[in-house]
């Protein structure tokens, strides 16, 4: 079992602590939090060992899970990597691309693994259709949430939209050509609602909307590609795959047939995969254990996290140019 430690015991940090303790892949060594009084209360309530010395915790572990505020990701990550330990860091990877590149360079120098907590990659609905994507050319996402003061220290792009940015970049195998966007600050000092358009060099276009001031929750993505439409509901963990193929010469009574302007007939059919239930956070942590033990590429490596951050920051830059 890999010895694991957690930096940061806030809302998400407590979830990671619980899952690491439950996991059969890790031995939870303990945690560090910058607030000693709060840390002592977590230790008393849950029994996790509190380390008052961050370096002592890092030294005692094989892998460190960084769940601190984003502004501390770079400093914490560099400490972990400098010590030659494997790094799991929550999204966004860092505040700037330059900081993220520091982590990449040091992980390579120390020959250790790094993974970024882009949890929607492990959503069972998304995972069930990964092998069905085939050069999508138009993508539309909506990620809407009710207002929560937690996370409003950063733009809605880094808080919410970055999940969809990462998912899209994992599907579209083409460099980003251009980004345009608009955002509005309603309650927070940073944008609370945003829309972005990403154009790729292969001609694919992605239209993303994110809001943290909505009256209802929504986390949906729609992918359009040749002869197929794929819908992923990250919230309800449901998928819909609609495909088209050449219609048979003699259609059945219940076959759905469409005829285009050129007279070609297509049959519409549903190809919905089974969606296996899972705990996405536990899965991302345990697949990281696989990567460490088998010396394979993490599902969302530091380079992936940096690519998503780069696009997110370009979107935010568009807000400032308005």
From TrEMBL:
Domain GFO/IDH/MocA-like oxidoreductase intervals: 137-216
Boundaries of every Gfo/Idh/MocA-like oxidoreductase N-terminal domain copy: 3-117
Pfam families associated with the record: GFO_IDH_MocA, GFO_IDH_MocA_C3
Gene Ontology molecular function: any one: nucleotide binding
Top-level division of the source organism's lineage: Bacteria
InterPro entries given in the database record: Gfo/Idh/MocA-like_OxRdtase_N (IPR000683), Gfo/Idh/MocA_Oxidoreductases (IPR051450), GFO_IDH_MocA-like_dom (IPR055170), NAD(P)-bd_dom_sf (IPR036291)
PANTHER family, alphabetized: BILIVERDIN REDUCTASE A (PTHR43377:SF1)
Name by which UniProt lists this protein: Oxidoreductase
